[in-house]
Design brief:
The complex is a heterodimer of chains A (138) and B (182). Chain A is an all-alpha fold. Chain A is built from five helices and no strands. Helices cover 70% and strands 0% of the residues of chain A. The longest helix of chain A is centred in the middle third of the chain and has 45 residues. Classes of the chains: A mainly alpha (138), B mainly alpha (182).
Chain lengths: 138, 182
């Protein structure tokens, strides 16, 4: 393997990411080529410089603060979901009632209004039936 | 025993906030440093770190357990960093923020002159690399991720990662030697 080919592979060689065949060839070349060994040393130095860059320290309260925020957000979302669910349940119940009324009027088994017309005189029901002309005795 | 990160994500998906806190504690420092080396602004890096975790929390129920949690989290971080850099380049105040950050750091640690100069030189050189080369180099040298994992994060093949790292190291070497105009 020539120096120019080795140089292209030194980065992956350093990372131990070369397949075994080319890795062996690079190792053999490095054993006899000082210039390529210097290149490898320089690359290793570069990595060390990157690894020893000062760490930026996270605020010690970060995890706690973020978790509390997420907790609050999810509670708010739950409330909103429950709120939506409540409205939906009320709407569904209203619609069901409406459908029951419509369906009942169409059903042959539904009792007609005059069967319920035995209201006491002058009660609201009596007045209602009178208006409809279906109270008993009419 | 399974991957502890996957167990944590499952718990998070089930609404376990303590599991979320544990995941944050596991990754916060690595993510903050990874993001800081991209945006070179402490506050922005912290905001982005927070954004990463909020996205993780929201997406936890949809996480595919066959995937690698670490690469998934770093993918979110990388995408956010690239978006932030694009936004800043459009606005054109990247250099100003970096300068302000440097001034603050100098005021906090005036005795650390050499260390600061070394960090500044390296940070500046890293800033001159294309986003994907910088990310590949940081993920390899600092976070010790494999080429396979880096490829998953950057959305490229393993051989492309090899090429990215080769070019990143070559360019960084030239920049630090002062052979390339900054």
């Amino acid at each position: 393997m020539r120096c120019v080919d080795v140089k292209k592979r030194l980065s992956a060689y350093l990372d131990q990411e070369l397949e075994s065949a080319p890795e062996g060839l690079v190792r053999e070349h490095l054993a006899r080529c000082g210039a390529c060994r210097d290149d490898l040393t320089e690359l290793q130095g570069l990595d060390i410089r990157l690894q020893t860059l000062p760490e930026v320290r996270m605020d010690p309260e970060f995890a706690e603060t973020l978790t509390v925020r997420v907790c609050k957000d999810s509670l708010a979302a739950d409330r909103s979901r429950l709120g939506r669910a409540g409205h939906l349940a009320r709407l569904t119940s209203l619609l069901e009632t409406l459908f029951d009324l419509v369906e009942a009027s169409r059903s042959p088994r539904t009792l007609s209004l005059d069967e319920f017309s035995d209201f006491p005189p002058l009660s609201m029901g009596y007045v209602y039936c009178r208006l409809l002309g279906q109270c008993r005795g009419d | 025993m399974g991957d502890p990160d996957i167990e944590l994500l499952r718990a998070i998906a089930g609404g376990d906030h303590l599991a979320f806190k544990r995941l944050v504690e596991r990754y916060q420092s690595r993510l903050l440093n990874f993001l800081y080396r991209h945006v070179r602004d402490r506050q922005a890096a912290e905001d982005l770190t927070q954004e990463v975790f909020l996205k993780v929390y929201q997406a936890a129920p949809r996480f595919e357990p066959r995937a690698n949690v670490r690469t998934w989290i770093f993918t979110i971080a990388y995408n956010l960093a690239v978006n932030e850099l694009r936004r800043r380049r459009r606005r054109g105040f990247f250099g100003l923020l970096a300068h302000e950050d440097r001034q603050r750091f100098t005021a906090e640690a005036p005795e650390a002159g050499d260390r600061l100069e070394f960090e500044e030189t390296m940070t500046e050189a890293l800033g001159l690399l294309p986003d994907n080369q910088r990310a590949a180099l940081l993920l390899r040298a600092r976070d010790e991720l494999s080429y396979q994992e880096i490829g998953e994060i950057l959305g490229v093949s393993r051989s492309s990662v090899e090429s990215l790292l080769f070019r990143a190291r070559e360019r960084l070497r030239r920049l630090l030697r002062g052979q390339e105009a900054r």
